[in-house]
Amino acid sequence: MFNNLQPVLAPSNYFISSPIACVKVIIMSSLIERLKNFKLVRKMVYAVVGLLSYPGLAMLNKLKISGTEHIKDLPRENVLFVSNHQTYFADVITFLHIFCAVKWGKTNRLGVPYYLLNPFTRVNYVAAEATMKGSWISRLFTLAGALTVKRTWNSDAKETRKGLDPSDTRKITRALEKNWVITFPQGTTKPFAPGRKGTVLIIKQSKPVVIPVVINGFWRAFNKTGLRLKKKGTMLTVQFKAPLTIDYNARAEDILAQLMDAIEQSKKFMESRQEMLQKTEH
What we know:
By secondary structure, the protein is an alpha/beta fold.
């Protein structure tokens, strides 16, 4: 996507050996948080990331978008996009392209990306804190509106804590008061991984408009980070569904099941896919 540009900086979770280094990290984190709130900075990041990513999405691959009629008239705040997850960055970057295109009056297509001249920036997205500190590219993309949260699982997708950290939950609910928010309830790029109840907690608290999104093809076209192109000519699909009708007083388990069905990551969709693969093999 970024001309096969590899991250060139070492991960930031290195051992901090002195109080001075610790202070520097704190100051840098504070600076990034301040910069994220400047609209001009965010627009510049959108423009840079958008221009770099557009060829990989719409020229070297085939992007098929559907359902933008469900998002063109949404309110400008308290909207939660809930999606399955296939790469760290390509998924979110594609959403941002689409949101900008829709706000410029386009339907189910990107077309020429002149929308980057004045992008729609009232969007935040939930991302793992460790992921966003992994390279200079991810640090730059943090300025596009990342809501960094602590992982609740390890590299094997096993739970290590229950739900989101309370401070992370507050961060997301505050963002919903002003913007749209993109979240991935599975918290991993592994298909059909179980959803996590932190998303349900946010839905119960903020009662947002919930838009399910189903994506496919990104895992085939890009590497896991979504920054390196693996295969050209891949069909990338993004389907926006109608807003969910949610009973906010229902059990968390029931709301989570509704979400997982809507993004086609529930057990029945996994079984359907397995049956399809078996038929293909025979």
